Amino acid sequence: MEKVRFGKTGLMVSKVALGGIPIMRISKTEAAKLVQETISLGINFIDTAHVYADSEEKIGEGIKGIPREDLVIATKSPANDKITFNENLDLSLKRLGVDYIDIYQLHNIGSEKRRDAIFAPGGAYEGLQEAVKAGKVRFPGFSSHSLVIAIDLMKSGKFASVQLPFNYIDHDAEKEAIPLAKKLDMGFIAMKPMGGGLLDKAELSFRYLLQYDHIVPDPGIERIEEIREIVGIVERKSALTESDKIEIEKMRTEFGPSWCHRCNYCQPCPQDIPISTALGAKSSMKRFSIERARSMIGPAIEKARNCLACGDCMTRCPYDLQIPELLKESIAYWDSAQLSK
Ligand code: SF4
Ligand code: SF4
Fold first, then answer.
1. Cβ(310) to ligand 1 under 6 A?
2. Residue 276, SS3?
3. d(CA 143, CA 165)
4. Is CB count within 10 Å lower at the N or C end of the chain?
5. What is the DSSP letter of 269?
6. 267 C-alpha vs ligand 1 centroid, how far in Å?
7. Is 264 close to ligand 2, i.e. is its CB under 6 Å away?
8. Cα gap 253→251, rounded to integer Å
9. What confidence category does residue 25 fall into, taking pLDDT thresholds of 50, 70 and 90?
10. Is residue 89 within 8 Å of 77, Cβ to Cβ?
11. Measured from the CB, is residue 267 less than 6 Å from ligand 2?
12. Is residue 260 in contact with ligand 1, taking CB distance under 6 Å?
């Protein structure tokens, strides 16, 4: 697998990273095997987060016995203050079974309030700087779902890497953030390269992303076949075709501006509604077989009928989606589709 320079960090990382969210859903043994097989395919870059349940622990199990210098490990802390940051970092090191983290990211800096808390005296950024000095962290990074905040933080010069959602539907980063990362020589991790599972065409997704030679997508992987397919696409290095571009335009029109990015930051919902699944009803029904759509979407739609329109979820949605209204639209679409069967 081709290695690329990860910006000013100088780290040489595989052209694609392993994202650590879906391994939360599989057993520890399966996860360790998946991590080992992924590494054997030439992937040396693993990205996870403190808050992804037991993901760090499972990755730690998978990398046991692999020389530390052969791997580039990135994880994230959701802390705002230094004390919590230090606790998160020590726990990340313990769970991963390593002495240092290559890239430690402040997780999802999505509001000015949070940003200000992080940079205040005694804030998480102070902890991150001290961790770099102590050798526990090699390079400071951050992730965000807000382009405005991310661009501001990139320009601050305080970070060596940035992580933003980027795929052919969620492509706002390509206007300013991606060229800026190149100009500032920052590492760029493309979060949700397949729309968090919504985009089912790996070939199209990765051909689109591979146009940018300085970004590293980190697909979340649950089965080894998935990463084998992605590695095959990356290694073939095939270019985006004219028909790909037409297909992308078609998909962008289909998803429209108020599509749910499946980040799940809107949770928890007091009615236990799986919001992102329910909001994805229309696209899932167009893209999957009726049986699969029914089993995936049906239970979420039934729960969505209990929405209280309390608006709690909207205060946490980084994309300002009008969730109760969109849920109503999803329910109506679902009901009409059932009637037409
Ligand atoms: S508005 Fe509906 S979906 Fe959102 S938190 Fe309230 S009950 Fe849940
Ligand atoms: S509704 Fe908003 S917060 Fe919830 S998953 Fe979708 S984009 Fe994310």
1. yes
2. helix
3. 9
4. C
5. P
6. 9
7. yes
8. 5
9. confident
10. yes
11. no
12. no
Q: Which of 258, 260, 283, 284 to mutate to test the pocket of ligand 2 (most atoms within 8 A of CB)?
A: 260
Q: Which amino acid is at 103?
A: I
Closest to 276 measured CA to CA, from 293, 257, 260, 292: 260
Which of the four pLDDT bands, split at 50, 70 and 90, describes residue 340?
low
Backbone torsions φ then ψ of 338, nearest 5 degrees: -70, -40
Q: What is the pLDDT of residues 181-224, one digit of tens each?
A: 999 999 999 998 988 776 778 999 999 999 999 999 999 888 89
C-beta of residue 82 within 8 angstroms of C-beta of residue 117: no
DSSP 204-232: HHHHHHTT-TTEEE--B-SSHHHHHHHHH
222-273 per-position pLDDT tens digit: 889 999 999 999 999 888 999 999 999 998 888 777 788 877 889 999 999 9
pTM of structure: 0.85
Look up residue 140 and give its DSSP letter. Answer: E
Give the distance (Å) from ligand 2 centre to CA of residue 262: 5
The residue written with tokens 């589709």 in the block is 337
